[in-house]
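Fold it.
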Amino acid sequence: MITGEQVKAARNLLGWSQMKLALEADISQKTLANFENGQRVKSDRKILVIHNTLERAGVEFREGEPLRFKAK
């Protein structure tokens, strides 16, 4: 499962704001901000949606490794 820190780093790699990611993932910006700040998100589905949205944008997550950006 991805962490809020990873999501924030991924957004920065893409040059996306919280609002951009929230719109792309169809979640609220508040939910995203809370997750990035370490607060628990009530739905694992929302975390999966965030993860999938970032991967579709080219971010690759590797367990135990830093984020990497894949060229499309």
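The chain is about 55% helix and 5% strand.
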